[in-house]
Amino acid sequence: MEKKYGVEVSQKEAEEIKSTIRTAYTRLIAEYIDRMKKGWTNRPKVMDYFYEIADFKTREKELVEAKKEGKKVIGYTCISAPIELILAADAIPVRVSSGWYDPAKIGNRVVPVEVCPVVRSTIGVALFGLSPFLELSDALITPLTCDSMTKLSEIIGDYKPVWAICPPRFKSMNQSQTFWKEQLIKLKEEIESFTGVKITANRLKSAIKLTHRATRAFRRLQNLRKGRPVIMGRDAMLVNQTAMWDDLERWSMKAEELCAELERRAKENVWACSPNAPRVMITGTPIIWPDNWKLPNIIEEAKPQGVIVADELCSGDRFLYDPVGVDEGTMDDLLEAIAERYLLPSTCPCFTSEKGNEDRVNWLVNRVKEWNVGGVIYYVYRGCMLYAMEYMRIKKVLDQLNVPVYYLDTDYTREDVGQIKTRVEAFLEMLEARVEI
Amino acid sequence: MIVAGIDMGVQNIKVVILRDREVIARSIIPSGFEPRRAAKQAFEEALKEAKLSLKEIRHVTATGTGVEIAPYADSTISMIAADAKAGVFMYPSARTIIDVGAEESRVVVCDEKGTVLEFAINERCAAGSGAFLEAMARALEVKLEEMGALSLEAKGTVSINATCVIFGETDVVSLIHKREPKHEIARAIYDALADRITSIAHRVSIRPDVILVGGVAKDLGFTAALKRKLETEIFVPENPEYAGALGAALHALNKAGGK
Questions:
Q1: Which of A406, A409, A434 sits opposite B124 (nearest CB)?
Q2: Residues of B in contact with A430 (CB under 8 A)
């Protein structure tokens, strides 16, 4: 197939890059997991399970086995993709947007450096086959949310079959709902013909039951972060994120086990770090494991140490937070409910309304109050126009709540770790001083 | 009680020695290629001026970009907190401290005690810092010390790109080729830097009084441009380049128990 965008690469270069980058990343994952372990010495044993899943290799082997048995793997680039439709076709969903830094530079061969680094990096891993989950994906669902994701859908179509779905930018109009639902119906048909599995109402109900169970565990974990810290923030973020490639049933079971243990600890006053540590919320561009763990690492290894109690990230607290509204009814009811679930609660800045993106505002206000947030880090990497542009709107709201916010501008690079550390430490120092007053 | 603060800047290393709340010595040494050695030298000079020996210093606090390699440091403090402490000390009614250094610019909002309430920093770009002025002065072939006075003669007839040092330099060169007067180009350079600082300042809620510190604060051309752009009165305390070291010294005083 002739590539519309993709640059041709030589076999030799591909082999070289693949072996150097994969070796480097094996080391990096091991280092980051080790640092997380050192940062939470009295962690529950079940965390080892999530660290293992975070290492990708276990899951990679499982996916290879599943594919041998004829199962399909369906990747998605954005959480606006309804995973219930994948699960109902007996296929395996995995999120494929890339958190690796170095491949972003490779992505520059196809798109300019000003483009969102997640997209550049995803192009980079596609070009050289660097991401196990993207390689194992038989097809991709590519929601056309922001501009970068829209073009990524075309570019990545050079490597995998893609099914683009386009959420409307207005959520609340009647036509918006119909427009969106029509696309999900078409997507359902695509998945059916691709996998050869007919998605019946019963199959869809079982898939919804499965995500309901995951959502319950997911919410339970986030609720545990409302009180004094029983789990380090970056560990909670990692648990949240592993749900994007783990077997969802097994993940739910392990997450339930973790929550039960953490609830016990909360009763017995066993804290993961000082209960007086400044409580931070992150909002903004997605933070994707493993390479882009820069900010969580800095916050929780800083002096003074901060603890991340909540976030408003599509790679984090938002992923499984909202359940599909029904698990009974006709096929039409179910599809209607799925369409609502993947449109209405989204706080992504690609949406707008008369009042501005009020769903994001409401989410943040609720988090600040209920999670007792001391300060907000507004995290934006270069190239994400929508998040950058919404800053003043969000700052205004947070000012009214008297919650300090710090705008942190970065990129897919390790070079600014020192700089960011200085800034984050100053911010945490400031939060500490506010508590003392 | 005698304490010291050291500011490990990118371009210069500054030391301030305090006896209680009085500054008794200051020194400044270019950081050069061996900042640790330069830092020791800066200490020696300040100690000589104060007629003291190192062991008489009860506590040393370090700050600045090179804080990790600061010699003799008992504690450290962020540049943001140092600015706030020093700002209120130098100018008690200061609530917004703008610090324009060689590599970084900061805007810090604080309360009357020097507690930081809000801050913003220029992001990953040299166009919002003193390094920009140096590069532009080179392109204009004037001494940096003379560029400020030169710019005050101008009326503001031309402007340059402020988003990037490299593009800024291209603009300056093309203005030179168009035979625009040097003083007009000089003013455009200050306006460009002031624009950048203003956009950083607008990310926080600035409140009066606004003071300007850091090495660039001594540049008349820049202070004039910033007043124009921010549309507010701006005060420059004495010895503005020592703000970081002074803030660190004040922190040392707290640490050592002498309020």
A1: A409
A2: 80-81, 115-117, 119
Residues in chain B closer than 8 A to A407 (CB atoms): 120, 203
Residues of A in contact with B77 (CB under 8 A): 429
Residue A247 lies in domain: 11-436
Task: Tell me the pLDDT tens digit for each residue of B78-130.
Answer: 999 999 999 999 999 999 999 998 888 999 999 999 999 999 988 666 667 88
Work out the minimum CA distance from A77 to partner chain B, whole angstroms: 28
Smallest Cβ–Cβ distance between A422 and the set B79, B116, B120 belongs to B79
What local confidence, expressed as pLDDT, does residue A252 receive? 98
What is the percent of chain B where pLDDT is above 90?
A: 75
**Which stretches of A40-139 are DSSP H helices?**
47-54, 57-68, 83-88, 102-107, 117-128, 132-136
Residue B228's CATH number: 3.30.420.40
Same domain, yes or no: B134 and B256: no
Question: What is the per-residue DSSP string for B172-226?
Answer: HHHHHHTT--HHHHHHHHHHHHHHHHHHHHTTS---SSEEEESGGGG-HHHHHHH
The alpha-carbon gap from A121 to the nearest alpha carbon of chain B, in Å, equals 20
State which residues form the domain around B248.
1-91+242-259
Residues of chain B with pLDDT under 50: none
Angle at A171 between CA A167 and CA A177, to 5 degrees: 70
Q: Is A413 a domain residue?
A: yes
CA distances from A193 to A64, A72, A81, A197 (A): 22, 12, 18, 7
The whole-angstrom separation of Cα B249 and Cα B252 is 5
| Complex ipTM tops 0.90 | no
pLDDT of residue B259: 56
Q: Tokens 């008992």 correspond to what residue?
A: B74
